[in-house]
Design goal:
The structure is a single chain. The chain is an all-alpha fold. It has one domain: MetI-like fold, CATH 1.10.3720. The chain has 14 helices and two strands; from the N terminus they run αββααααααααααααα. A hairpin with a 5-residue loop joins strand 1 and strand 2. Helix 3 packs across helix 7, helix 7 runs antiparallel to helix 11 and helix 12 runs antiparallel to helix 13. It is globular. It starts with 7 loop residues before the first helix and ends with a helix.
Length: about 290
């Protein structure tokens, strides 16, 4: 009978304790607040599921959730195909490979709040380079501080600039891992570029694209810093995503009970949709 070495758990224990401290304990605090009401001085009153019912029936929550889903859908529709296209156009060998990889990684190295502030200055209609160019050179009436459509275009463009690189790098990693024998066989068969992409490259990139879609969904669905710094949720509430609305309820109105309930619902939606994405994209592998 083989003896199992239980000492390995001592190496895992620090990680488990760190996860428990950073995730489980705050989560229990949120759960505690979600079923109670507090008026300060550490006084709590039991509310049960009242906050959950209030949030789920709230038009404000439904509107913010709809904006959040629309933002995430637009991000996935733009960034996934764009990232694949850029990865396909990048060189596989030679001097330009590290140059392209470094250039692709640069936007992701910039902190989120800096990205928001940078694009805020860049897109201002009077002093921003992009705003001035659109208004005075192209003659487009652009003002993200007054026009909801312009605000949406700006936050979408900002996120595409910031995070398409992640999809590019993952797709590129999948492409360079494909053996040359596949391409040689396709060349002998006289396959077109589309056939090579459809039957060789895309299937071989499936695993990395699954990771890319899951990461981009979770990140874009929980995004807060960049759009908040860029538009503050405005004009009006046009760009008030669910994450921004949650912070407004928790810190602006100091309604900790409803905010805790909303955060748990938010978390459950993220887990559910991520599981659906993963199940659908790995359906063939599971069969």
């Amino acid at each position: 009978m083989k003896t199992e070495n239980q000492k390995a758990w001592f190496f895992v224990l620090p990680v488990l304790l760190l996860v428990a401290f950073n995730a489980l304990i705050p989560m229990m605090t949120v759960v505690n607040y979600s079923v109670q009401e507090t008026f300060g001085d550490n006084l709590f009153f039991w509310e049960g599921l009242t906050w959950f019912e209030q949030i789920l029936r709230s038009d404000r929550f439904h509107a913010a959730l709809g904006r959040q889903f629309m933002f995430t859908a637009l991000i996935l529709i733009i960034e996934i195909p764009l990232g694949i296209a850029i990865a396909l156009s990048m060189p596989r060998k030679g001097f330009w490979v590290p140059v392209c990889l470094v250039l692709m990684a640069l936007p992701m190295l910039i902190p989120w709040n800096v990205v928001g502030a940078m694009w805020n200055i860049f897109a201002l209609p009077d002093i921003g380079l992009m705003g001035y160019f659109l208004n005075h050179v192209l003659g487009i009436n652009y003002d993200m501080t007054q026009d909801p459509v312009a605000a949406w275009v700006t936050i979408i463009t900002m996120d595409v600039w910031h995070w398409t690189s992640l999809v590019v790098l993952l797709a590129y990693a999948g492409l360079v891992s494909i053996p040359d024998a596949y391409y040689q066989a396709a060349k002998i068969d006289g396959a077109s570029n589309w056939s090579v992409f459809r039957f060789i490259q895309l299937p071989k990139m499936k695993n990395v694209l699954t990771i890319a879609i899951l990461l981009r969904f979770m990140d874009s669905f929980n995004i807060y810093t960049e759009p908040f710094v860029l538009t503050g949720g405005g004009p009006g509430n046009s760009t008030t995503l669910l994450s921004i609305d949650l912070v407004k309820i928790a810190l602006g109105q100091f309604d900790l009970g409803p905010a805790a309930a909303m955060s748990l619902i938010y978390f459950a939606i993220t887990l559910l949709v991520s599981w659906l994405f993963y199940t659908l994209m790995t359906k063939d592998d599971l069969n």
